[in-house]
Write a structure and sequence with these properties.
Elements lengths: L15 H108 L2
Length: 125
């Protein structure tokens, strides 16, 4: 029979090997618990990062929509300003035309009044 390798068998009366094994087991359990806590924390952080990215992407889409609306509003403002300028120019031209026409009518009325005044004064003489 071949000699078997020496496997230390703890002495049940001494208990030092058993205590050491118990400490190793307790340490391993504590490390496993810590590792599990770290995994949970990591999963929570990854979930928060994912939510943050999704929120950021949503905000980026919202910002893009707002910027597009802003461009549309600015273009509309430019068109309105152009139309307003054209209307102002047209109204100034109409006001000048009306003023000129009123002045002509006033002058004609004044001439007619003078003619009437001169003809009526020659009748009474």
């Amino acid at each position: 029979m071949a000699p078997s390798p020496a496997i230390p068998i703890p002495d049940p009366r001494g208990g030092s090997a058993l205590k050491a094994l118990g400490r190793k087991t307790a340490r391993a359990t504590a490390e496993e618990e810590e590792l599990e806590e770290l995994r949970k924390r990591n999963a929570e952080l990854e979930r928060k990062v994912k939510e943050g990215r999704e929120r950021e992407e949503g905000l980026a889409r919202d910002l893009e929509r707002v910027l597009e609306r802003l461009r549309t509003v600015e273009e509309a403002e430019e068109r309105l300003c152009t139309q307003l300028g054209e209307l102002e120019a047209e109204s100034v031209a109409q006001a000048r035309s009306y003023h000129h026409r009123i002045k002509e009518l006033h002058d004609r009325l004044a001439n007619a009044q003078r003619m009437l005044d001169s003809s009526s004064s020659s009748i009474f003489l």
